[in-house]
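Quick start: what a row looks like.
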Amino acid sequence: MCLCLAQALANNNPEKDLPFAPGEQLSFDIHFHWGIIMAKAGSAFYSVSSEDVLDLKSAYCSTLSFRTSAAFDKIFKMRDTLYSYVNAHIEPVYHKKYLHEGNTNYVEELAFVQFGEKKTEARSIRYNADGNVRFEKTLKASTVAFDMLNIFMFTRMLDFDNLTVGETIPLSAFIGRDNIKLQIKYAGQVILEKNDSQKYKALKFEVDVIDDAFTTSKKALEIWIGDDSNRYPLRIRAKLKIGTVEANLSSFSGNKYPHSSLIQIKPHN
């Protein structure tokens, strides 16, 4: 059974029902896994603000910055920053990405022309480091489509009260030249262990991704959302060809609601 957009997005709710507010800040530790080897690769910082962009009226801007650690820079240096703007109905308006990965550097813009359950259209432009246009392309999807950063905001906005285990939501992600098809599956309520003294009440989602960058399309992405009114992403795991990448929430501030998904476990004497 597939959810329609009206069920999936809480875009008709008043602002007080949103799980976030301007001023929210989340920090993540990033680890790479190769077989039995796990190494801390860097950190990521996510924030929500209220601002407009260009001549487009927007309500919220989410920002994600990622940088590898000094030790990991020797293997593969990354300095990426993404901006995503949505309107008051939490519909995508504009996305900009600054990518610096190894010797690859470019800027990418995505301007949404139309957004809807049966048709989404956006104009994608990529610039080389020298500012010259590398490509310009119109992307179209016969379903709702987002930039990749707004997939996480979309997941936080789902109608959790009406989700059933195994329910799926088909959508697309516009990335570069490509319209990448996704399917988000609700896997149910779980207990997510952070360490011996901390566990979280969480809601798990599994994302099938049809893209060559992933080792498998099934469960290519796994997302654990905190089971409280903030709907923080607690853990995100991606199965890439270079290995498994995992982001774990390390700190937060500016939360709109009490952080009640955390379960503290008293140590034994």
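That is the whole record. The helical segments are 5-8, 70-73, 148-156. DSSP finds three helices and 16 strands in the chain.
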